[in-house]
Structure formats: structure tokens, C-alpha cells
Write a structure and sequence with these properties.
The complex is a heterodimer of chains A (about 180) and B (about 350).
Chain A lengths: L3 H16 L15 E7 L2 E7 L4 E2 L4 E7 L7 E7 L6 H4 E3 L2 E2 L2 E10 L5 E11 L2 E6 L3 E4 L6 H8 L1 H16 L12
Parallel strand pairs in A: 3-11
Antiparallel strand pairs in A: 1-2, 2-4, 4-8, 5-6, 5-9, 7-8, 9-10, 9-11
Chain B lengths: L1 H15 L8 H29 L12 E4 L2 E4 H27 L8 H23 L4 H17 L16 H21 L3 H31 L23 H12 L6 H25 L6 H31 L22
Helix pairs in contact in B: 1-2, 1-7, 2-3, 3-4, 4-5, 5-6, 5-7, 6-7, 6-9, 6-10, 7-8, 8-9, 9-10
Classes of the chains: A alpha+beta (about 180), B mainly alpha (about 350).
Chain lengths: ~180, ~350
């Protein structure tokens, strides 16, 4: 039986071993725009910038919404529609500054789950009154990478393994059974 | 515990601040949980192997009965802890590749994330086995009072992927309820005292309160440290992950303690079923109440309640038997016809 002081010392040593060499390095990706779409929302022209093009399902991207004359004095809402029901945060949201590009509105690290056509609909309020408009349908291609079923099968191994271990333990634990390996 | 705090912080960071790299502090904290567990497990397996080789028997209180794996003699609890940690490392590399293909985390429920969460869950199950074998020692009981709430809070993350599945019940809610039933019945079964369910529920409530206030603070303080602004429109919502921890489980635990203090064969499944149904309904009602969101449709509420009841009963039954394993296993073979020692509250085997 190991005394508790030694147990604590071992845990602290293990923690130090892991944490000491690690120095967090923060270098965030810039918000790139590789493709733009233009929307006329009443009196306001909005440039929609995508960080990926062509768009693919499940791939994360940044989207910037840049109204002519900047975002000062303006507010608005965004409504995204697609081939399936979208997460409420995406389907209806208030236009907010992009966390990594604070002079424009935007969505950071979002992914559109399904292949199909999506539209971004704006309702903007500003010095020239209310304006509404939407993008032309934006095409999202099929997902990259291996088929999803294969990814799920590979990633289910730990859970299946855990359940298998519990089942084996259950079956081996019967009254009068010898242990897994004879005593030394 | 480290993994639990790391993931809570990371989820809050994604929600409130946004920018992400592999090397954020919250990620490091999450990885550290598995790394520390892996190093400890490896150390204990090596110690047991050396002891066995030297002809010294290993006390089952040190992580359970030893199992021969390749050339090692691994105490079963540490074997499970270490396997979980090793899988975490393996799937960490897969997650890195996944991000190369799909970019940054847009969703919590991606396949590699599920594998990582189930690896951490495996490590937590292993630590429950380790502490369970040491239930007669004070450190074992303290460990159980911390590791069971960790599992209750963490394991539902694995079922995040089922959140929007078109089922007549909510997969993540009922699994959370079943895990709570499993843990409360395990607590009583292993320690052999009904009041220990209340101790575990109390520990969960304490963890809940700490996480609730700590997650937003940590996310925002770290944002300030990194010179990053908090997202627009953040501040009024409750912290996202702590909001999913079942509240008022103390009341359920009192019920469990009451049911299990009576010597009856059906007590564990009944205690599990009660926990399952109450927790599932509570989780359904708690989400709209604290988020001001839409109420759950009655059909789903009934579906969750019934499924929670059935799964909870199964969890209670299973938990009692596993508790008997942890309490009753001996290194010597049991003579034929002699019963193994089960949880004493039943007055015999489970």
C-alpha cells in the first residue's frame, strides 16, 4: 500500500512533467476573403466575403459581411436558409462583429452540414432607414475526406472497446469462477 | 477532473470569444488530464509488474486484480485508465488530421471528438475502478466522490452527436440520466452505505457551482490576457456546459439512499429507474428555464421520461453487479459453492 503522500507527490510530478514543456503559443489565423458575393439590402450594399471557395459541406470557414461605409451606426439581423433545418444560431442571428476582424460583421468558424444551395438574407437598420436583401443561392458541394460512415466506424472503437471490456468483466464475474490469471 | 475543467473552459471560449488554435490554455488543460492519468497508470502498471516478478503479491486495493497483458501484470483499474489515455493520444492525432481536412472546430460532435470524449470517459471509468477497489480507505472514498461526478458531467458529451437525431426522445438527455442512475447506485453499492449517494450528489452540486462561475470567468480572463475581445452580445446566457449538468440531483440521491437502505432484490433497478425518470424530465425542463428557450414538446418529455425510466432501471441493475465485482473480487479463486461478497446493504450477493 503506497502512502498517500507518495501518491500525491507522484501525481504532482506527472502533472509537472506534462505541463512544464508546454508554452502556449497563440497565433490566430487571419480572416481571408477568397470569394465575394454582393447584396443590395435596400439602400445598403453589402459585400459577403467567404474564406473558402468553392464551399464544401462540413468544412469550417469564416464569412464576413461588409456594408459600404462600414458598420458604424448600423445594426441588423442575418437569416440563413439551406436544404435542411439549420442550427438556430445560424438560422436567425444578430449581425455581430467578426471576433478576429472587428471592423466588419461576420461569422467565425461555421460549417454548413449538407450539400445544397444556401441563401444569406439581411435586414439592416441604419442612417438611411431599413433595408432588406439576400444573396443569390450559394452552392455548397459534397463533403471532403472519407465517407462519414467510415469516420464514425473508426471513431466508435473506444466506446465499443469500453462496452466490450464491461461485458467481458460482467461475464467473468460469476460465483466460483477462477480469476483471469492464477495467483502467483 | 482536469479534463472536465479543460473542456468546460474550452466550450465557453468557443462560445464567448472564438479564436482557436491547437495551443490554447484550455486545450492544454484538457490534454493534461489524459496525460497525467496516462503517466500515473503506466507507473502503477510497471510497479505491479516489478512486484509480481519479485514474487511479492500485489494488493488488489492498489487498482484491482492484476491482468496479464503482453509481458506486463496490470492492475485492472490502471489498465483501463491507461488504455483510455493511450486512445486519447491516438485519436488526438486523428483529430489533427481531421482539422487539416475540415478546418477548425465548427461543431463539438465530430467523429474524432466523439472518440476523444469516449477515451476520456474510459479513463474516468478506470479511475472509478481504482478508487472502488480502495473503498475501504479514505482516499478511495474521496476519489469516488470526485470521479463519479466527473463521469456524470463528462460522459453525456459523447452523445452530443444524437442531440438532433430524429428520435421520439432526446438521446443526450436520456444517456445523461442513465449515467446519473449508474453512478448513484454504484456509489451505494461500492461503499455499502446508502448515504454515499447523497455524498456523491453533493460533490456533483459543488462541482456544478464551481464550474458555473469559473467557466465564464476563465474564458473572459484568458481573452483579456490574449488581448482579444469577447464576442458581441455575450453575457446574458448561462455558461453552456455547466447549464447541462442536472440540478437538484441531491433530492434524487435522497430517494436512491431511501430505496437502497431497504433489503430488497429489486431495490437497485427501482433506485435506477427513479433516478432515470426524474433526471431526464429535470434536464428537459431545466434547459428552457435557465436559457429562456422554448419549452420541450410534451411528446418528447413523455418519451424522455419513459426511456429514462427503462434505461435507469437497467443502469441500476448493472451498477449493483459491477459494485459487487469491485467489492467482492479476490486474488484467490473462490471455492466452488461459496458466494462472492456482494454489496452488504443487500445482506449478501448482488
Amino acid at each position: 500500500m503506497m502512502p498517500i503522500r507518495r501518491k500525491i507527490a507522484a501525481a504532482v510530478a506527472a502533472g509537472a512533467l506534462v505541463l512544464l514543456p508546454a508554452a502556449p503559443a497563440l497565433a490566430y489565423e487571419p480572416v481571408n476573403v477568397v470569394h465575394t458575393e454582393h447584396v443590395q439590402a435596400g439602400p445598403y450594399e453589402v459585400t459577403v466575403g467567404f474564406s473558402e471557395w468553392p464551399l464544401r459541406a462540413m468544412q469550417s470557414m469564416d464569412v464576413s459581411f461588409i456594408p459600404d461605409g462600414g458598420i458604424g451606426g448600423k445594426s441588423g439581423t442575418l437569416h440563413v436558409t439551406g436544404p435542411t433545418r439549420l442550427h438556430p444560431n445560424l438560422a436567425n442571428s444578430t449581425l455581430a462583429r467578426h471576433p478576429r476582424k472587428l471592423d466588419v460583421w461576420g461569422l467565425d468558424v461555421i460549417a454548413l452540414d449538407r450539400q445544397g444551395e444556401y441563401t444569406f438574407e439581411f435586414r439592416i437598420d441604419g442612417p438611411q432607414g431599413l433595408g432588406e436583401g439576400q444573396t443569390r443561392p450559394v452552392e455548397v458541394l459534397s463533403q471532403p475526406g472519407p465517407p462519414l460512415a467510415l469516420s464514425w466506424a473508426v471513431c466508435a472503437i473506444p466506446l465499443v472497446g469500453l462496452l466490450a471490456f464491461l461485458v467481458i468483466a460482467w461475464r467473468r464475474h460469476s460465483v466460483g469462477r477462477t480469476p483471469l490469471h492464477p495467483p502467483v | 477532473m482536469t479534463s472536465l475543467f479543460g473542456i468546460t473552459w474550452d466550450v465557453q471560449w468557443h462560445d464567448d470569444v472564438g479564436p482557436d488554435t491547437f495551443f490554447t490554455l484550455s486545450h492544454l488543460m484538457l490534454y493534461s488530464g489524459s496525460a497525467i492519468a496516462g503517466v500515473v497508470a503506466l507507473t502503477m502498471v510497471l510497479r505491479a509488474t516489478v512486484a509480481q516478478r519479485a514474487g511479492r503479491p500485489v494488493d488488489p486495493k492498489e487498482g484491482g486484480r492484476t491482468v496479464r497483458v503482453l509481458a506486463f501484470d496490470a492492475p485492472v483499474g490502471y489498465l483501463v485508465v491507461g488504455t483510455g489515455a493511450a486512445m486519447f493520444l491516438l485519436y488526438g492525432t486523428m483529430d489533427l488530421w481531421w482539422h487539416g481536412v475540415y478546418g477548425f472546430d465548427a461543431i463539438l460532435g465530430s467523429p474524432p471528438h466523439m472518440a476523444l470524449f469516449s477515451s476520456i470517459t474510459t479513463t474516468m471509468v478506470g479511475s472509478i475502478i481504482v478508487f472502488g477497489y480502495a473503498h475501504a480507505e479514505r482516499w478511495g472514498r474521496i476519489g469516488l466522490a470526485l470521479s463519479l461526478p466527473s463521469l456524470m458531467t463528462f460522459s453525456p458529451l459523447m452523445f452530443e452527436a444524437f442531440e438532433d437525431a430524429p428520435l421520439p426522445f432526446k438521446g443526450n438527455i436520456i444517456m445523461n440520466a442513465a449515467v446519473c442512475a449508474l453512478c448513484l447506485v454504484l456509489a451505494v453499492g461500492i461503499v455499502g452505505r446508502p448515504v454515499f449517494a447523497v455524498v456523491v450528489a453533493g460533490a456533483l452540486a459543488a462541482v456544478h457551482v464551481v464550474l458555473w462561475f469559473w467557466a465564464p470567468w476563465a474564458a473572459h480572463a484568458y481573452a483579456e490576457l490574449s488581448g482579444l475581445p469577447v464576442r458581441d452580445g455575450v453575457g446574458s446566457e448561462p455558461p453552456s456546459l455547466p447549464a447541462r449538468i442536472p440540478m437538484l440531483l441531491l433530492i434524487v440521491a435522497l430517494l436512491v439512499a431511501g430505496v437502497l437502505s431497504r433489503v430488497r432484490r429489486w431495490a437497485p433497478p427501482i433506485a435506477g429507474a427513479a433516478t432515470g425518470v426524474v433526471t431526464a424530465v429535470m434536464l428537459d425542463l431545466q434547459a428552457p428555464l435557465i436559457n429562456d428557450g422554448p419549452m420541450v414538446p410534451p411528446g418528447i418529455l413523455i418519451g424522455d421520461g419513459l426511456t429514462g425510466l427503462l434505461l435507469g432501471a437497467a443502469a441500476g441493475y448493472v451498477a449493483w453487479r459491477f459494485a459487487a465485482m469491485v467489492r467482492g473480487e479476490r486474488r484467490e479463486p473462490n471455492p466452488i459453492g461459496r458466494t462472492a461478497v456482494g454489496p452488504t446493504v443487500l445482506g449478501g450477493t448482488a
